[in-house]
């Protein structure tokens, strides 16, 4: 798995993100195009290519969603651009309830406490799904990991919407 190799990390869903960030900074310093400003054109081009590769790898590996997508893709299952719907009836029902709850919060005049409570709920759901993805990937249950990842994508999207709502309510 090339992206993990760039940072000399074991190809695993569970990575130390602070270690990843440190290795990223070290590699950026070593391969930053400015370091090669007085070099030949081929050295400059190579440094730029390497810096771009490092940036792409870091962006992918720092996010649990894109990291899981990358691992699945490396194992022959590309779900990064799919439009597959989740067929789990209980999760679909939960999605509807979460959406309704988000609407209720947006209609509140003082939504702060409800936002915090919902953030906690979604964070717990995210942790649970990430743990499932980790287990499934470790056990090479790629379809199950993909299913949990689809759910995680929904939760992450809902968290972003809740964050926007929190920003809007703070501006009122």
TrEMBL record:
<comment type="subunit">
    <text>Interacts with HscA and stimulates its ATPase activity.</text>
</comment>
<dbReference type="InterPro" id="IPR009073">
    <property type="entry name" value="HscB_oligo_C"/>
</dbReference>
<comment type="function">
    <text>Co-chaperone involved in the maturation of iron-sulfur cluster-containing proteins. Seems to help targeting proteins to be folded toward HscA.</text>
</comment>
<dbReference type="InterPro" id="IPR036386">
    <property type="entry name" value="HscB_C_sf"/>
</dbReference>
<feature type="domain" description="J">
    <location>
        <begin position="2"/>
        <end position="74"/>
    </location>
</feature>
<dbReference type="Pfam" id="PF00226">
    <property type="entry name" value="DnaJ"/>
</dbReference>
<keyword id="KW-0143">Chaperone</keyword>
<dbReference type="InterPro" id="IPR004640">
    <property type="entry name" value="HscB"/>
</dbReference>
<protein>
    <recommendedName>
        <fullName>Co-chaperone protein HscB homolog</fullName>
    </recommendedName>
</protein>
<dbReference type="Pfam" id="PF07743">
    <property type="entry name" value="HSCB_C"/>
</dbReference>
<dbReference type="InterPro" id="IPR001623">
    <property type="entry name" value="DnaJ_domain"/>
</dbReference>
<dbReference type="InterPro" id="IPR036869">
    <property type="entry name" value="J_dom_sf"/>
</dbReference>
<comment type="similarity">
    <text>Belongs to the HscB family.</text>
</comment>
């Amino acid at each position: 798995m090339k992206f993990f190799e760039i940072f000399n990390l074991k190809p695993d869903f569970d990575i130390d993100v602070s270690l990843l960030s440190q290795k990223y900074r070290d590699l950026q310093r070593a391969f930053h195009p400015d370091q090669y400003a007085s070099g030949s054109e081929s050295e400059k081009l190579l440094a730029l290519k390497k810096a771009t590769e490092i940036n792409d790898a870091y962006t992918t590996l720092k996010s649990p969603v894109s990291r899981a997508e990358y691992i699945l893709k490396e194992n022959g299952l590309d779900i990064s651009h799919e439009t597959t719907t989740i067929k789990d009836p209980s999760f679909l029902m939960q999605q509807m309830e979460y959406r309704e709850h988000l609407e209720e919060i947006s209609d509140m005049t003082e939504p702060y406490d409800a936002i915090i409570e919902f953030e906690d709920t979604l964070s717990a759901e995210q942790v649970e799904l990430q743990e499932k993805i980790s287990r499934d990937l470790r056990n090479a249950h790629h379809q199950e990991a993909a299913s949990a990842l689809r759910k995680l994508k929904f939760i992450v999207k809902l968290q972003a919407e809740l964050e926007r709502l929190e920003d809007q309510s703070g501006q009122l």
